[in-house]
């Protein structure tokens, strides 16, 4: 069991809207996957920073809240952050 990656759960999910879908992002792992594979706009500084921050959290060198903040910033920039 120790070989499993800590998903870096967020204290509070981040709600995003992509197309007609509204999703709650609950963890750093979920945020990283969305940033890599299901992002509605091209490469930006905020997106790159969020991906790098997620990798640091998943690697154990940063707390999950840093990934949540970076993901939220990137979601605002992409205009997908739900209120």
Describe this structure in words.
The structure is a single chain. The chain has 3 helices and 2 strands; from the N terminus they run E-E-H-H-H. The protein is α+β, with helices and mostly antiparallel strands. A two-stranded antiparallel ribbon has the order 1-2. Helix 1 runs parallel beside helix 3 and helix 2 packs antiparallel against helix 3. The mean pLDDT is 92.
Radius of gyration: 12 Å
Number of continuous helical runs: 3
- Helix/strand-derived category reads alpha+beta
N→C terminal distance: 37 Å
Stretches where pLDDT falls below 50 for ≥5 residues? none
Strand ordering within the main sheet: 1-2
Work out the helicity level: 40-55%
Strand content: 15-25%
Layout: helices, strands, pairs:
Elements: E1 9-18, E2 21-27, H1 28-37, H2 45-58, H3 64-77
Antiparallel strand pairs: 1-2
Helix pairs in contact: 1-2, 1-3, 2-3
Features:
83 residues; alpha+beta; globular
Short description:
The protein has 83 residues and is of the alpha+beta class.
């Amino acid at each position: 069991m120790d070989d499993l990656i800590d998903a870096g759960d967020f204290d509070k999910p981040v709600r995003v809207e992509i197309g007609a879908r509204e999703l709650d992002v609950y963890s750093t792992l979920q945020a990283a996957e969305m940033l890599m594979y299901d992002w509605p706009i091209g490469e930006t500084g905020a997106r790159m920073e969020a991906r790098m921050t997620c990798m640091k959290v998943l690697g154990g060198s940063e707390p999950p809240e840093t990934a949540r903040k970076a993901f939220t910033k990137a979601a605002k920039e992409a205009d997908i952050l739900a209120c």
